[in-house]
Design brief:
The chain is of the alpha/beta class and 264 residues long. The protein has an 8-stranded mixed sheet with strand order 1-2-4-3-5-6-7-8, sandwiched between helices. β1 (2-6) and β2 (9-16) form a beta hairpin. It has helices spanning 39-42, 68-81, 94-106, 125-141, 143-150, 164-175, 179-190, 196-201, 219-222, 242-245, 247-261; strands spanning 2-6, 9-16, 21-25, 47-51, 87-92, 110-116, 206-211, 230-235. It is globular, with a radius of gyration of 17 Å. The chain contains 11 helices and 8 strands.
């Protein structure tokens, strides 16, 4: 992986392909490896830049609480250091929160964007309490125990057993998350803003992808606008992890959207 320094924090990233740039952002307790089965399909047509977010993978994991804006700023700085004036951002779950932050504050840096199993809603009070419990579990029992409890619920319930190899892959990626990174990111997600107005008011082309069986972010929490320029895609039989459950379908959705909305 390559690395750049983003205002004191080292951000590692992988790059593959040529063409118009697209930036792929992974979810919580993930890494750039989340996109391993999707990038080969996208990189035939696009320049794919896939970072490990702050607190994840091989990137730095500073102590303390993070913010969504801060994590998005890391990606904007990476884009700047790669001398890319504009790029399309596609964010999975947590990555979608960062994407909306960038859309709100620096829309001129984006050509289009996508929320993949993500939402513009803020956490509910129940959701915030789950973040607190996550922090407590990580600090008391460790990242392995937390990831073991988290990952199976990210897959479509009826397919957890049949996709056991993929479930194990996601767990193994999660085990490598620095505990302080998982804690800092949990606090960032807990405090994130409601950005439904950002999603509905933006004039940028937007792709919204939901999993039919997603228990973490049900389709109704993804499809919060049908404004002009929005493409909605539901992946049948998928949960929160179409990157592993249906990578070809996800790649097809991103490619079809990009070919219509990103100039080559």
């Amino acid at each position: 992986m390559e690395k750049v320094l983003c205002e004191g924090t080292t951000i590692c990233y992988a790059e593959q392909g040529k063409g118009e740039p697209i930036i792929l952002l992974h979810g919580f307790c993930g890494s750039s490896s989340y996109w391993a089965e999707v990038v080969p399909l996208l990189s035939q047509s696009y320049r794919c830049i896939v970072p490990d977010l702050r607190g994840h993978g091989r990137s730095d994991a500073p102590l303390g609480a993070y913010t969504i804006d801060q994590m998005a700023n890391d990606v904007l700085k990476l884009q700047e250091q790669l001398d890319i004036p504009q790029a399309a951002w596609f964010g999975h779950s947590l990555g979608g929160y960062l994407t909306l932050s960038a859309v709100q504050r620096h829309s001129d840096r984006l050509t289009a964007f996508g929320l993949i199993h993500s939402t513009a809603y803020a956490d509910t009070e129940e959701g915030k309490e789950k973040r607190n419990k996550a922090v407590a579990t990580i600090q008391t029992d460790g990242i392995t125990t937390f990831v073991d409890g988290l990952v199976p619920g990210l897959f479509a319930p009826e397919r957890v057993e049949s996709l056991s190899d993929q479930v194990l892959k996601v767990k193994e990626i999660g085990y490598k998350t620095p505990p302080q990174g998982a804690v800092g990111t949990s606090l960032a997600m807990r405090e994130r803003a409601d950005r439904r107005d950002v999603l509905s008011a933006s004039t940028l082309p937007a792709l919204l992808v939901a999993g039919e069986q997603d228990q973490a972010v049900p389709p109704a929490r993804t499809f919060t606008t049908d404004r002009a320029g929005v493409t909605q895609v539901t992946i049948s039989e998928a949960g929160h992890m179409s990157l592993f459950e249906a990578p070809e379908q996800l790649a097809h959705a991103i490619l079809a959207f990009s070919q219509q909305n990103i100039q080559q």
